[in-house]
Specification:
Keywords: Cell membrane, Manganese, Membrane, Metal-binding, Transmembrane, Transmembrane helix. Pathway: Cell wall biogenesis; lipoteichoic acid biosynthesis. It is found in: Cell membrane. The structure is a single chain. By secondary structure, this protein is α/β, with parallel strands linked by helices. Helix content is 33%, strand content 15%. The protein contains 14 helices and 18 strands. The strands form 5 sheets. Strands 7-6-10-1-11-12-4-13 form an 8-stranded mixed sheet. It has a 4-stranded antiparallel sheet with strand order 15-16-17-18. Strands 2-3 form a two-stranded antiparallel ribbon. Helix 1 crosses helix 14 (379-400) and helix 7 (169-180) packs parallel to helix 8 (217-243). The structure holds (2R)-2,3-dihydroxypropyl phosphate (GP9) and manganese (II) ion. (2R)-2,3-dihydroxypropyl phosphate (GP9) binds at residues 81-82, 130, 134, 165, 192, 194, 197. (2R)-2,3-dihydroxypropyl phosphate binds at residues 81-82, 130, 134, 165, 192, 194, 197.
Length: 427
């Protein structure tokens, strides 16, 4: 109903965080290159196994002078896994409490990043070495306004190069390079990697690091597939440098969700050199890397708390597009008004002061469980819990009732799904 929409518009207006002029428009007109780091958790960054860095390239990228690396950044996905991450990054709207919005609500009205940028002269494309129907991408990308979708049909899916869900990352990035020549600049392009995915199988002859020795196979191999991803991305970025694209593009890297579930806590305790993994540790383990490399922008390690819901407004503001008129549930990480409360899909949340896990609260700095009196005393806790519940409920209502049908931001042209099809295959 119009009341629902009105509530949501009020809510988003109240939560809007205005851009910081230091960053606003600093990447105006640049290409955007998203690199999706499959199942990549932040603990891998700077982790040493057998005395060696697991992901030397990504580690160095976090320290690049033009990279902003967010080290308190969390995934917020639910059952929709990869698709939830994509959904949040493209829309700043939460994935659903059950299932995946990609499958249940693919024909909804959205005001997604490719559509907004498309109306500012950007072309857009997704590259992914799996069938286009997986996660219903070929349908939902139309609603997002993606011009092109280079799925498995564009790649050489020979037996040797295919593993698990699809094309291995090295041939994937290699074969994507010539396809990129078709993209009209400025472009908004997303590269979804695949090899670092459960059950983390990498042919032994292709791994340049020994497995870990916890005795839990998937945990042990996780380091090897992460190294493989690291090498794949290094080559890709080298190419971007060679062609000059590196200087004309914002490169955004993000982990989509955890790789090691709580079923592997025993092995993870060994990996992290802890006696046990507490519920607090589990929540903190939901950190994934988030990096923005923008030419001309001063980099550094940023400690503000945030999550995937915040990516779109952050990026839009860097590109010089104010998000005020759009319905978005996250806020610009670089804004002074950014809310450092990171809701998880199950209603728990993290923040700099408290970590909430299934109705229990822990001090975020020490990991100590807070007793009822302490929770009662710190008024911020109840407020943050209420905010978490409210923002998730608003977001769900918006998706379930397809409410953006009734709201067209001024100057935005609604997406016509008929303008898009991904039936082309490679020549
Ligand atoms: C499939 C890939 C993996 O194409 O993106 O999805 P996930 O299993 O991680 O949700
Ligand atoms: Mn995934």
């Amino acid at each position: 109903s119009s009341n629902d929409l009105g509530d949501i518009l009020n809510f988003k207006n109240a939560n809007y965080a205005k851009p910081d002029p230091v960053y606003f428009g600093k990447a105006k007109g640049k290409n955007v290159i998203y690199i999706h780091l499959e199942s990549f958790q932040n603990f891998l960054i700077n982790y040493k196994l057998h005395g060696k860095e697991v992901t030397p390239f990504l580690n160095s990228f976090t320290k690049n002078k033009n990279t902003m690396y967010f080290d308190n950044f969390f995934h917020q996905t639910g059952q929709g896994k990869t698709s939830d991450a994509e959904f949040m990054l493209e829309n700043s709207i939460y994935g659903l409490p059950q299932g995946s919005a990609f499958t249940t609500n693919s024909t909804n009205t959205f005001q997604a990043a490719p559509a907004i940028l498309g109306q500012k002269g950007y072309s857009s494309a997704v590259f992914h070495g799996n069938k286009k129907t997986f996660w219903n991408r070929n349908e939902v990308y139309k609603s997002f306004g993606y011009d092109k979708f280079y799925d498995a049909g564009f790649f050489d899916m020979n037996d040797q190069d295919v593993l698990n869900y699809g094309l291995k990352d090295k041939p994937f990035f290699n074969e994507a390079l010539p396809l990129m020549k078709d993209l009209k600049e400025p472009f908004y392009a997303k590269f979804i990697s695949l090899s670092n995915h459960f059950p983390y199988t990498t042919p032994e002859d292709q791994s340049s690091i020994e497995p870990a020795d916890t005795g839990d196979g998937s945990v042990d191999r996780y380091f090897q597939t992460a190294r493989y991803l690291d090498e794949s991305v290094r080559k890709f970025v080298d190419y971007l440098k060679k062609t000059g694209l590196y200087d004309r593009s914002v490169i955004v890297m993000y982990g989509d969700h955890y790789g090691i579930s709580e079923n592997h806590n025993e092995a993870m305790a060994k990996v992290l050199n802890k006696e046990e993994i507490t519920p607090y540790d589990s929540a903190q383990l939901q950190k994934v890397p988030f990096m923005i490399h923008a030419p001309g922008v001063k980099g550094g390690t940023m400690h503000q708390y945030g999550g995937q819901i915040d990516v779109m407004p952050t990026l839009m503001h860097l590109l010089g597009i104010d998000t005020k008129k759009y319905v978005q549930f996250g806020t610009d990480l670089l804004s002074k008004q950014h809310q450092q409360i990171v809701p998880f899909r199950n209603g728990s949340f993290v923040s700099p002061f408290v970590t909430s896990v299934n109705g229990k609260y822990y001090d975020s700095q020490t990991g100590e469980l807070l007793d009822e009196a302490a929770v009662e005393k710190d008024k911020r806790i109840k407020k943050a819990q209420n905010f978490t519940e409210k923002t998730l409920a608003m977001s769900d209502k918006l998706v379930y009732k397809d409410l953006l049908r009734y709201y067209t931001p001024k100057g935005f042209k609604p997406v016509d799904r008929n303008d898009y099809n991904y039936n082309m295959t490679k020549a």
